[in-house]
Write a structure and sequence with these properties.
Layout lengths: L2 H11 L5 H7 L4 H9 L2 H5 L4 H10 L5 H11 L1
Helix pairs in contact: 2-3, 3-6, 5-6
Length: 76
């Protein structure tokens, strides 16, 4: 996965653009939703967990197993 190295770093450095993360989480596209949660790894590595928790709550009831797997991975 490289999305946290690209998008995650960009959003961490440009916090005023964080809405991008939430727009991806609200998408109907599986891959955009998955990117939204995995990109939060950059925040996790910097001991900032708010966005990971918020995105996890948004994706909580998603039906796709790849989303469950990605959310679980970030929460671990």
């Amino acid at each position: 996965m490289t999305c946290y190295k690209i998008l995650g770093v960009y959003l961490h450095d440009n916090n005023d653009k964080i809405k991008i993360l939430y727009d991806l989480a609200a998408s109907n596209n599986l891959w955009k939703k998955r990117i939204s949660i995995v990109a939060t790894m950059t925040f996790i590595k910097n001991n900032k967990f708010d966005h990971t928790i918020a995105i996890s709550i948004i994706l909580l009831k998603d039906k796709h197993d790849l989303i469950h797997k990605a959310v679980g991975w970030m929460l671990r």
